[in-house]
Amino acid sequence: MCDLWRTTIVLAMASTLWCRGQEDVGVPRDLIEQRIEAAAERLDNDSDVDLTALFDVLADRYLHPLDLNRTDVHALGELQLLSTVQSAAIVDHIRRFGPLLSLLELQSIGALDLATIRLLLPFVTVDEAPRTQRTPLNEILRAGRQEFIVRGQRTLQERRGQQDRRNMLGPEYTDPDGDALPNTDLPAVRDSLRVNNKLYLGDANKLYLRYRFRYRTTVSWGITAEKDEGEQFFRGTQKQGFDFYSAHLFLRDMGPVKALALCDYQAQFGQGLVFWNGLAFANKGAYTMNLVRNAPGLSAYTSANEGLFLRGAGATVSLLQRLEFTGFLSSKRIDGNLATATDDSSRTEQVATFTSFLEDGLHRTYAEVEDRHAVSERIAGGHLRYRQRAWSAGATAVHQTFGSALQSGTEPYERFRFAGQVNTNMGVDWKVLHRNLTWFGEGARSANGGTALCSGLISSLDPRVSVAAVYRNLGRDYHGLYSIAFAESSNPWNEHGLYLGLEFRPERRWVVNAYFDRFEFPWLRYNVDAPSEGQDALCQVTWKPSRTMEFYARIRQRQMERNTTSTTEGVPTLQAEQRTNYRLQATYEIGDRTKLRTRLETSALEQGNAPRRNGFLLYQDLAYAPPESAWDLTLRYALFDTDDYGTRLYAYESDLVGLFTIPPYYGQGARWYAMVRCTPARRVDIWLRYGAWLFEKQDRIGSGLQEISGDERSDMRVQLRVQW
Amino acid sequence: MRAMHLLAAMIGPCALWAQEDGAMTGTRAAGMGYAVLAASDVWSARHNVAGLAGMEKAAASVFFQPHFLSQDLAHQGLVLVLPIKRGVLAADATSFGFALYSRGQVGAAYSLCLSKTIRAGVRLGYQQVRLGEGYGRRGVPLAQVGVQANLSESVWAGVQVSDPHRPNLGAVYDQRIPSMLRFGLGWQANEELLCTIEVEKTVDREERFRAGMEYKPHDALYLRMGLVSGPATVHGGVGLHLEQLEVDLAIASSTTLGTTPQIGLNYRFP
């Protein structure tokens, strides 16, 4: 058995090496996408996320694998392929038995199963000679890789906000209630509608452009530009062309300067309580041991999200052998709702305040354009990190200044929210490895005195059993405007909870993941007019009978408290709300070219004494990729039937490379999409994707200006990528 | 009539408490969410009487547990275990309550190994309930039968039936002690780690699931964790083993009711 297994590994390695030889430009198709998909599944219920950064990390590591003998837990964590227990086990193994002689040695580490080793292999090595310190510029330019991507997206049905335009690709908008539409052919009518924000200014196309140059992991520069649906392009309010431009220059490992970022970049420190911009993978999910954040510090910004980045400069400098300092400055304008308040009737002094952060980056109407870049935002911060092999500790301080004062709402639940122009967050974070135990955490404080703490333990008690506990206490008055905490709520404040996680591998082919999380919200929340509490539990059993088959069953149950729907006079009362999801999924391959996936999921929502509402989703995926062929095909057909939006179900969808979609499925209907990818020339890839939602018994989809008449919504996406 | 309703509301949970008194004893078990049906320790006399047969030395244990940190709701107990030529004997006593409401339970148990892989035991007990202000006290006999089986080198299964004879407290109480059936598994993953799960059904109450874990990072130190469903309760505990003396601490935290600590002392005779 053991021998057979070893042979498999050798074969797997050999095939990987062979692949690497074959495709000198770019990375093999599936290799990274599969892993991204695994990572995206962890995000679970966030739609339209931009995972470009993770994609880049993996692509870099594919071309320049991580040397396991010269790495630490931190770098391993960045790959998002290993659990904390697994990366700690590799580092511990090297510490105890010396450098790895071959990747084959990985199999002697108990915490690593064959599937994980397979995931990891393409991105790591053990024999790379230490890199030379200086590379001349012409070598960088010669050996660097460049990539150019252009992408277009469009919904084929016309939305209410587009009714003044001719729709070449699909049906025009007609009022679902049968009312007559205003005659938008008359310029006066059209202008009046536009002024009153009843029409979008721009066309329905969404465009995206990206250029990037990279030399190993040390040099990167590039620009990204994006225009959203409904935004103008090179005219009117958008004379500069695209609505969003981003550029970056990022350098690594230049003597004592470990990282240097100019223009757009991201900064992530500690466990995210003080400062974390961008997405955080470590959170609750079926990967129950994936709880520790591996903060990369500064990183290049290559995504198109219009809020989650910094603009300015930052650098990481190593001060002593084990001590490094990161400093960064950012100044940009962010979107916000400006309100001009007269603070006294006798004095007509006007105070500019803004009422909310707008992060969607959409500027389709005059009102939205007015909010665009309305507020200046300055951020200055520093992070000091001391790193030993087995432990590290850091301190972070970040100061934020807004050009206008942010107004906190007047609702009781908003009482402790941030208001004003200035905020400072400070905190310390730590990570300690001791034998089979990892202890991590971060404590933070905001300028108003609000505090937040998050700390956890992860331990592998047996090669087959790992357990974790994470405690968090996020003060109701903590102002973490740029924090992403490990929490039930999406806000990093007003929560107190304990998470217990388990991963059990009784046998190589079986994995059981389970967690139980209990939380309290000491202050009111939106739609919850009293302090409340809840719990969340998940159990997933995964069976991988062979390399090409995987089955899992998952149960998740969440209980929360929410305002009662019936309005009783007097004391507001809460009612229990319970959500239960059951999921079955099978993934299997037929031959070496067809991969199938079937998922069945149900959801049930019980609120107080109201009748239970249910949701159901069944889908079939097919991915057909003939080996060494210039094209491949991905298909999905799904039927869903949910009683309402409350019982919606989320499912990850395959999309153009670089784009990630996890839409909610709700209502009654069918969903299908087809995507073709072809490689007409060696360095050129083209993607074409068509997808449609076909609803039953519905005369409109969406609301407001987004409304589409009829029962069908479909969209088309095209992407071209050239690498050289 | 109203008084009767009030009384019913007060003593409603009596019978349930009788069950809680029965199995919810011992600090080691408390740290593991009482998921110890397949384990063997001093308080096996109450958890699963078959487990007693695993005791090789005489031992004594006491515990004190102020429910939700209230002195009036304190639960305490004592047990003595004595291995004899064939089998193991035990005697136990617990009490709960205050002047106006109290309960107590005493029992005697005997357990033995039927073969290398099967242990069985029986316990006979007596439960007394007293409501103050002239309602008097009532008592009923209790009975438990338990079996443990070694399924493989590292896996034990345990099953226990409690009060199948449905004794009635009678008089104003007019309530039966409900029958209960529990089934559990214990897996000794390695020398340091014990994992347990079990399901419990009391005839008139929703089923409960329990999971527990005990880890020994050092010869003298035990760390415990447990989880019980509906209503969810999280348990945790620490044990210190100093020669013959064992000191255990446990804590249970439930969503609505709050936190209950517990301390226990075990002494193993040399």
Keywords, please?
heterodimer; A: 724 residues; mainly beta; 24-stranded antiparallel β-barrel; two-stranded parallel ribbon; 9 helices; 33 strands; 13% helix; 46% strand; globular; B: 270 residues; 14-stranded antiparallel β-barrel; 4 helices; 14 strands; 11% helix; disordered N terminus
Put the structure in a nutshell.
The complex is a heterodimer of chains A (724) and B (270). With 724 residues, chain A is mainly beta. Chain A has 9 helices and 33 strands.
Q: How would you describe the overall organization of this protein?
A:
The complex is a heterodimer of chains A (about 725) and B (about 270). With about 725 residues, chain A is mainly beta. In chain A, the strands form four sheets. Chain A has a 24-stranded antiparallel β-barrel. In chain A, strand 23 (about 575-590) and strand 24 form a beta hairpin. Chain A contains nine helices and 33 strands. Chain A is about 15% helix and about 45% strand. Chain B is mainly beta and about 270 residues long. Chain B is about 10% helix and about 55% strand. Chain B has a 14-stranded antiparallel beta barrel with strand order 1-2-3-4-5-6-7-8-9-10-11-12-13-14. In chain B, a hairpin with a 2-residue loop joins strand 3 and strand 4 (about 100-115). The model of chain B is unreliable at about 1-15 (pLDDT under 50). The interface of A and B includes residues 459, 462, 500 and 518 of A.
Mean pLDDT of chain B: 86
Distance N terminus to C terminus of chain A?
Answer: 44 Å
Strand residue percentage of chain B? over 45%
Instruction: Estimate the global geometry of chain A from the Cα principal axes.
Output: globular
Largest interface: A-B, 15 and 12 residues
Strand content of chain A: over 45%
* Helical content band of chain B: 10-25%
Q: Unreliable segments of chain B (pLDDT under 50, ≥5 consecutive)?
A: 1-16
Largest sheet properties of chain B? 14 strands, antiparallel, barrel
Q: Any idea what the shape of chain B is?
A: globular
Question: DSSP helix count of chain B?
Answer: 4
Order of helices and strands of chain B: HHHHEEEEEEEEEEEEEE
Strand order of the largest sheet of chain B: 1-2-3-4-5-6-7-8-9-10-11-12-13-14
Rg calculated over all Cα atoms of chain B: 18 Å
Helix content of chain A: 10-25%
Number of strands of chain A: 33
Distance between the termini of chain B: 59 Å
Based on helices, strands and strand pairing, what is the structural class of chain A?
Answer: mainly beta
Rounded Rg of chain A:
26 Å
Main sheet attributes: strand count, strand direction, barrel closure of chain A: 24 strands, antiparallel, barrel
**Number of discrete helical segments of chain A:** 9
